[in-house]
């Protein structure tokens, strides 16, 4: 009987039958030799070295771990092998969480605010206009950077990138959101934002055009807390929400900025084309579904509970 006939009879390919026959002729059996196959390139001790080294140097890329392993043990492996060994123990290279640094005083203020607002209803949050400024610039952070962490470790202090202010210069915008509405997006040009500019260019034309009896939420940036701004709000009978310093994770508009950034990036605006960037920002701001905004504001109670759970520290939001 030929190999083709055998393959047809047992329902296998001819190549499988050929390999089995060659194995039988060579070893006297078609079974694989025990312990056969490619030899493992690292020992258990070297695997432990990689794991400990990655956990102690969480932001070290695989190529640097590969080099350090070779320097320490003389064993050269591929970066793919490094990743496989770390994946086996649960370590994955993830984009690091970006958080603002918090002092003890910041945490206490955040904790107190969250406890005061944890029982607010959606109707109460519906009276608030959440506002903020944001920069839209190129490569303000290295988005290729990764951190080695186990599941649930992304927000540990050693896995977080501390980021205080957005650097660079490009386009600065201001916007406000609420459950049922949003402001126009304001482009802030020709210099930095001062208290006077905040009053005259932002609050008068934008926030002042919102519904009666709304509550203004703005953070504690110096222009927002200028005396002339406070006087203007009192004159216009606009209520202002007390806000804990360094709390972007409590402001749902931060996620709208992320959505706006993604939508603008999808348009592939050429680098340096500021006019096109401004146009894209204005158009995409209006195109964000209102349901997205409502869903984010509906998370305020959960955000308060998260701050309480983290004892005033940074949350996952």
UniProtKB/TrEMBL annotation:
Residues 128-268 form the Tc1-like transposase DDE domain. It comes from the Eukaryota. InterPro entries: Homeodomain-like_sf, RNaseH_sf, Tc1-like_DDE_dom, Transpos_IS630-like, Transposase_5, Transposase_Tc1-like. Pfam families: DDE_3, HTH_Tnp_Tc3_2. Residues 47-118 form the Transposase Tc1-like domain. This is Transposase. It comes from Cirrhinus mrigala.
